[in-house]
Amino acid sequence: MTLTPKALLRISVAVALVTIVLKGLAGYMTNSMGLISDAMESFVNLASAMFALAMVTIAERPADDDHPYGHHKAEYFSSGFEGILIVGAAVAILWVSVQRLLSPEPLEQLGWGLALSVFSSGLNAALAVVLFRAARLHRSIALEADGRHLMTDVWTSAAVVVGIVAVHFSGWLWLDPLLAIGVALNIVREGVKLVWRSSQGLMDEALDPETLATVQATLDAFAARLPAGTGLRFDDMVTRRAGQRRFADLHMHVPGEWTLQHAAAMRDELELALMDAVPGLRVTIQLLPLTMEARATQTEQP
Q1: What pLDDT sits at residue 142?
Q2: How far are the Cα atoms of 26, 246, 272 from residue 283, in angstroms, in the given order?
Q3: Rounded to the nearest 5 degrees, what angle is found at the Cα of 50, between the Cα atoms of 46 and 52?
Q4: Of 54, 70, 175, 261, which residue is least crowded by CB atoms under 10 Å?
């Protein structure tokens, strides 16, 4: 059974609550700044999953008079918001870690603390894998962002566990807060990447090269089916992405002797072929005779 994005994000909220409890206990039991910083990031997981759920709910709304292209871009706000939260959490971790670095404290009850941390990280890793698969299936940047954040949390936890073990055997108490600082810097990097990715979506970024290649292959196959010498050609294609939706505008040049009815029928057939080849694609095709060239788009001057 394939779960919907909303169902997966509800699960993400539940997992975030569980990991907050488990990692919070681990940090409390061990007095480790590394584990405490890991637990603080779990609060970001919770907030981001809840916001992503709200944005996915908005993105599912149908098009209306005020939003004729739908509400799909709402998912980009989720990704950007999650990135900002990640950076904020990293700043808080850095502040507390620097204080601990100046005044190191001994670690306690490492066995149970590490066990709780490893178990909660396993939950996050399993959920992240599911989210990545669902993100590809539903073309959801909100699910992808949540999955990337969870995987960052998993690697963070792994580094913390290794560091704490090193502290235990070496006795270097300063290593624990230093590790937490490294965790925070890694979190900042991931947060900046998410903010950048969401900004590109809001800026109407073109379709990815793989999808463009599929579109071009479909156009070539469609033209090859027609009798030799027809001369059918396509040009001036412009594409963009908006959440789960993908858009393509292009010109279709047809022989001047074709009737409008025949040309329109061919255009409808091509639109169906493109939408079958690229799920979620919305195509707008302008018909032009072979002898006419579209006027070049003028660059607007400020």
Answers
A1: 75
A2: 53, 9, 9
A3: 115
A4: 261
